[in-house]
Write a structure and sequence with these properties.
- With about 280 residues, this protein is α+β, with helices and mostly antiparallel strands.
- The chain has one domain.
- It is built from ten helices and six strands, in the order ββαααααααββααββα.
- The strands form two sheets. It has a four-stranded antiparallel beta sheet with strand order 3-4-6-5, covered by helices on one side. The protein has a two-stranded antiparallel sheet with strand order 1-2.
- α4 runs parallel beside α9.
- The radius of gyration is 18 Å and the shape is globular.
- It comes from Deinandra increscens subsp. villosa.
- InterPro entries: D27-like, D27-like_C.
- Pfam families: D27-like_C.
- One of its GO terms (cellular component) is plastid.
Amino acid sequence: MMAGIVIFPAPVTIGIAPSTNQASKRRTRLAIVSVITPSSSSSSSSSHDVLKSTEARSGFSVATNTPKTVYKDNWFDRLAIDYLSKAVQNSTGMKNEKSGYESLVVAAKTVFRSFTPIQQRQLVAKAIQNAIPPPLALLIKTLMPPSKFSRAYFATFTTIFFRWLVGPCEVKESEFEGSKERNIVYIKKCRLLESTNCAGICTNLCKIPSQEFIKNSFGIPVNMVPNFDDMSCQMIYGENPPALEDDPALKQPCYKLCDVKHKHDTSCLDEEDARK
């Protein structure tokens, strides 16, 4: 998820090799809208299959034990979902036969399963950087420096154009530098998190790359604060996120019923840093 501007760019080349043995090093093509979402579903244990089957029949989310949200996507939603799903599939060279948001979830899980946590973040960061031309990002950054207006603009833009990705959201007011501002996007129940039941997908393929890109490209700091208990999230424009090693979101363990093969690990932050 990313606030800013919706662009359907020409495909770009991404050169990160998957960590699995099933794919040799390849250069893949990736087109993107907003922020790439997560990944990773492979074969689950029989108990997980039963849980997923139960979830499908009952209409309840296994992670929160609450009624699963039913979405009625309009033509714009379907267009954006299809575009992003194909972009994610192109990034791995691994196609799926699903349709709609399910196709996006399957594609995202494939990315998450095939790359290390560090590589996942690098992949998304490169994709976003190549999707939005630097001159355009610089223009937006120049015309809209950090201010009460720009923070409110980015928040409003997010709620209007990215509901298809994250679900219903609204702008909320907060106290910022001694005055009231409408700089927070409150996502009531993240569609992506609910659909994937994966904390690692949330942090590595949405939260961290989005924060870094928006700050570096548009000059607007943003802190994304997911609530893994009720699957809500806040995007706080104007607030710098904590250092990765201090960020509570990265200390979140997997959901007990997470069916993602490539498990999220609280130590994933350090695995590549230790080699530097």
